Amino acid sequence: MTELKIHELHVEVESDGGPKEILRGVNLTVVSGQTHAIMGPNGSGKSTLAYALAGHPAYRITGGSVTMDGEDVLDMSVDERARAGLFLAMQYPVEVPGVSVSNFLRTSVTAVRGEAPPLRSWLKEMRSAMADLNVDSSFAERSVNEGFSGGERKRHEILQMGLLNPKFAVLDETDSGLDVDALKVVSEGVNRVRAGGEVGVVLITHTTRLLRQIPVEFVHVMWQGRIVAEGGPELADEIEANGYEQFIGAGVAG
Amino acid sequence: MGQVSMSNARSYDLAEFPPPSGREEVWRFAPRAALKPLLEDAPSDGRLRWETTLSEDVTLTQITSEQARERAASAPVDRISALAAKHADGARLLDIQADASHPEPIVLDLVGVGREPVTWGQVLIDVGAGAKATVVLRFSGAAQYAGNLSVVVGDNASLELVSVQNWSDDSVHAGHFATRIGRDARLRSVLVTLGGEAVRLVQTVDYDGPGGDADIRGLFFADAGQRFEHRSFVDHSQPHCRSNVVFKGALQGERARSVWVGDVLIRANAVGTQTYEINRNLLLDDGPRADSVPNLEILTGDVAGAGHASATGRFDEEQVFYLRSRGISEEEARRLVVLGFFADVLDGIDVPMIRAEVMRAVEAELGYRREVQ
Known about the structure:
The complex is a heterodimer.
Chain A: E1 3-15, E2 18-31, E3 35-39, H1 46-54, E4 59-68, E5 71-72, H2 78-84, E6 86-89, E7 96-100, H3 101-113, H4 119-132, E8 143-144, H5 150-164, E9 168-172, H6 180-195, E10 200-205, E11 218-223, E12 226-231, H7 234-242, H8 245-248
Parallel strand pairs in A: 3-10, 3-11, 6-9, 9-10
Antiparallel strand pairs in A: 1-2, 1-4, 4-5, 7-8, 11-12
Helix pairs in contact in A: 5-6
Chain B: H1 32-35, E1 49-51, E2 59-63, H2 65-71, H3 79-87, E3 91-96, E4 106-113, E5 119-127, E6 132-142, E7 144-153, E8 158-166, E9 172-181, E10 186-195, E11 198-207, E12 213-222, E13 227-236, E14 242-251, E15 257-266, E16 273-283, E17 289-298, E18 303-314, H4 317-324, H5 330-341, H6 343-346, H7 352-365
Parallel strand pairs in B: 3-5, 4-6, 5-7, 6-8, 7-9, 8-10, 9-11, 10-12, 11-13, 12-14, 13-15, 14-16, 15-17, 16-18
Antiparallel strand pairs in B: 1-4, 2-3
Helix pairs in contact in B: 4-5
C-alpha cells in the first residue's frame, strides 16, 4: 500500500500584481486503490494543485508538504516525480512538433520503467493499448498532440497513464471537451487502470459528468484554495442537485 | 513582401564585384572580418583533401576553368564566388550519365588541411537527363575556404543532394551554391551547417524549363561565437515550376549569430508558379541573435500559390515540462524538442546513415551524451 499525503500545502504564482497565493493550506491523503474527486468551481485552485504536484516551475510552494510513503515529493524534480510514480493527465496537453507519439511513448516508458522494453513486445503493448482506446494506428506516427482534436488529446493522456502504470494519477478536467462517446472510451480506459487495484486516482472536475462513468469513494470540495467540504459519492449528487453555493456561501454559481 | 535583394548581375568579371563596404544589402549581415581573406584577389595553392571512394560507374574528373564556366549552373553572384572561380585552377566534375540510376549515395568527403593558405575551390555536379542520384558532400577539417558548388539537374532528372558543413571551430567557408533545374526535373538539396567560425552560403535556384521542382532545405546550429549566413535566391523564370524553401536554425551561446535571407522572384512569364518559403529559428538561451528576411517579389498576376513565413522564438519550456512530467530527463527532453524542431528538414535527408550522423551532431551540439544501452 502506498500513500500520497498532501499536508497544509500553500502555493503561489506570479501575477501582474506580484505573487498571488492560490492554495492556502490543502490537506488530502490518497491511498493506493482509492479514487477521489476534487470538485469546485472554476478558479478554486484545483488545477493549481495538479500542476504543483507535478512540479510545474510556474507554481511556487510556500508552505506545507507532499509525501509519497514518506518520501518528500516536493524535493524531487519534475521527471523524478514521474519516475517515482506520479502521473498528471493534463487539461491542456502540450504540442511537441516533430516528436512522434511512438518515439515519445517509448522514451517515456523507458525512463519510468528504468529500462527499454524489448522492441517486439513493446510494439504489441503499444498497439493493444491504442486499440483499447479506439485510437487509430496512424496515431503513433503523428507529432505529440500536434493537430489533435480535444478528444484525441485526452485519449493520448489516458493512453500514457495505462502504459506508465503510475502509483498515483491526477486527472485534470479529463472530461472537458469530450463528447458522450469519447467520454465513455476515456472513462473505460481509466477504469481499466483502476481495475488493477493499485493506482490511487484523483479526478479533478467541476461537473459530475465524469463521476457517472468513474465511481469515486471520496469527494472533496475546493473553494478559494482550500478543501471546504468532504464526503462520499453522495456529496457529488448534492452538488449535482444544488450546486456549489451551499458550501461557499451566496453569490457563487454552481 | 519585399523586393528581392539578390537579383543583380551574375558575372565572372571581378570588376562587377568591388570589395564590399558592408553597406550593401547583400553584405550588411556578413561577418566581414572573418571573410576578409576570401575577399582578396590573391592566388593560392591551398586545396582541400578529397577522401572519396567512388563506384566504377561514377566519374570524377578535373576540368579547366574554361570548361567549368561552360558547364556551371550559374555565373558567380558576388566577389567571393567570382574570386573562387578565378583562382580555383579548374574544377572537379562529378558527371552522372544520362538515364543512369544510382541507388547508393555518392559520398564526397572534402577535408580542410589548415587555415593557411586560403583555399579556392570549385565542384561541379552534372546530372544527365533522366538520371537519378543521391550525392552527399561532407566538409570537415580546418580551412579558410571559398568554394563554388554547381549543380545542374538535366531534363527529367532527379537529384537528392546533402551538403554538411562541419568544419573546425576556426574555419571559414563562403561561396556560391548554384543550382539549375531542367524541364520536369527535380532537386532536393539540404544544407547542414554545424561547424566553423563563419559560414556564408549563397544558393541560387534557376530553372531551364517548365515543370521544375526545387525542394530547398537547410539546417544550422550556431554555437557561441559562430556566425552562419544562408541566402537563397529562387529565380522563377519559367512557367509551372515549384519551389519550397525550408530553413531551420537553432542557436545557443554568446554571440551565436545567424542570418537567413530568402529571396523568391516570380518573373512575368513564370505563370503557374507555386512557391513557399519558411525560416524558423530556435533560440536556446539569451546569447544568440537570428536575423530572418523573406523577400517575395511577384511580377505576374497568374501564380498557383506563393507564400512565406518567418519566426524566431525562444525555446518552449512548456514542451520540456510536458516531456519531463512523463519521466523523461531534462537533457533528453531538450534533445527531443530540438530534434523535433528540425524534423521536417531531417526528413529530407534520404540517406539513413547521413541523417543519423546529422542527428548525432545536433545531439553533440546540445551536449547530449547518448547512454550506452
